[in-house]
Specification:
The protein has one domain: Uracil-DNA glycosylase-like domain (Uracil-DNA Glycosylase, subunit E), CATH 3.40.470.10. It is α/β, with parallel strands linked by helices. The protein has helices at residues 7-23, 57-61, 68-80, 107-119, 135-139, and strands at 48-52, 92-96, 129-132. The longest helix is centred in the N-terminal third of the chain and has 17 residues, at 7-23. 36% of the residues lie in helices and 9% in strands.
Length: 148
């Protein structure tokens, strides 16, 4: 990726990354109660990236990152911060430390396996703000959380 990558190139990179996430099955044989969500809508490259712990039951049933109760709470926070009521998630890229659902006791293992996706994430110009959401992330080794 070049330093001055255009939107089209960034969008293409995100499509490739999301396809790699969809195809990954590394944790399937290592993690109890492993479940793989469908390819999730993670928003768009922008100036903000929000990183959650991982998908939950709502993401297993749908196709949107931060769905269900967590998504409603997040949307309300974005609105409180001045986001557009028509599109509170506009210009924000959403991801998570882990990309699948599994046993809570194996979060660190899954985070280590998913760290490669942070190393290859290119959302265009560097975001001006990155935010982690979730208690498990704070207990996760820094190297497994991406470099934000």
């Amino acid at each position: 990726m070049t330093e001055n990558a255009g939107i089209g190139e960034t969008g293409h990179s995100l499509e490739v990354l999301h396809e790699q996430i969809s195809l990954c099955r590394v944790c399937e044989s290592q993690v109890d109660n492993f479940q793989k969500p469908s390819k999730l809508d993670r928003g768009e490259a922008g100036q903000i990236i929000i990183v959650g712990q991982g998908p939950g039951s709502a993401e297993l049933k749908g196709t949107r990152a931060f769905a269900g109760q967590a998504g409603r709470r997040l949307d309300s926070w974005l609105l409180e911060c001045g986001a557009s009521p028509e599109d509170p998630r506009g210009g924000i890229y959403f991801t998570s430390v882990i990309k699948c659902v599994g046993s809570d006791q194996q979060f660190s293992l899954m985070a280590a396996n998913c760290a490669v996706f942070f190393a290859t994430t290119d959302i265009g110009d560097s975001p001006c703000a990155g935010h982690y959401l979730g208690e498990k992330i704070l207990r996760c080794p820094q190297g497994n959380r991406g470099g934000l």
